[in-house]
Amino acid sequence: MIRVDHAEKTFRTKKVIDDMSFVAAEGSIVGLLGANGAGKTTLLKAMAGLLKLDRGAITIDGKYPGLPARAILTYSPDLDIWYPWMKLSDAMRFLKDVYWDWDDSKAQHLLDFLELSQETVIAEASKGTKAKMRLLLALSRQSKYLLLDEPFSGIDPFTRKLIAQAIVEDFMEEGQTVVISTHEIAEVENILDEIVFIHEGKLLLKGNVETLKSDKNKSLLEIVEEVYDHARL
Ligand SMILES: Nc1ncnc2c1ncn2[C@@H]1O[C@H](COP(=O)(O)OP(=O)(O)OP(=O)(O)O)[C@@H](O)[C@H]1O
Fold this sequence. Notes:
This protein is of the alpha/beta class. It has a single domain (2-232), classed as Rossmann fold (3-Layer(aba) Sandwich), CATH 3.40.50. It is built from 8 helices and 9 strands. The chain binds adenosine-5'-triphosphate. Adenosine-5'-triphosphate is lined by residues 11, 16, 34, 36-42. This is ABC transporter ATP-binding protein.
């Protein structure tokens, strides 16, 4: 379980995470939703141990982010982290050398499904292809916790839906917990179990997607838009 407990983070004078608390239960897919600048990446980085909170705490199965939790968590950032000369095969080899949970057969399956070539130089690939490569590199590890920052950004809407569904049906590990930050609410609402909707660092709405939808008799996008409009008044 990932537990976020009264998390706070300020950059210079701006509070970008403000007294945030929620839980990502084991085996669930949680959508971290919010407009540009809401604080999604900051929160994911704090979960991954890449930045320190000013107040509050995050734990992953009771362990603090960073080194203690690294063996059970994969963080896939929304940017290129590879050297410009690296081919997809170089990045795959690197991760295989570093992580014991790299799964060769899953990587091969993902190469076929996402129609990727190992020979492609990552820096030279299109935006959509880079996004698919990031997904392959993240999903080929069998880690218990998976943090995906904007995994569908740059992928066309038709393919997005297909990939989102495949993540759940074909590529998720048993009991794996996935946190996905995204703006693409309509395309992913079918795969999400829970949502955490944030705005300017504050938590506006959290809950089970099916319960929220049946309580309000609306789509997830409509519910989130309503809450967002209300918060901006
Ligand atoms: N290192 C930093 N120094 C100063 N401010 C920062 C830093 N990183 C993020 N911020 C600010 O924190 C706020 C939240 O940024 P964050 O990247 O977490 O938002 P986001 O929800 O991921 O946005 P987007 O959807 O546009 O990617 C923004 O106002 C951003 O400018």
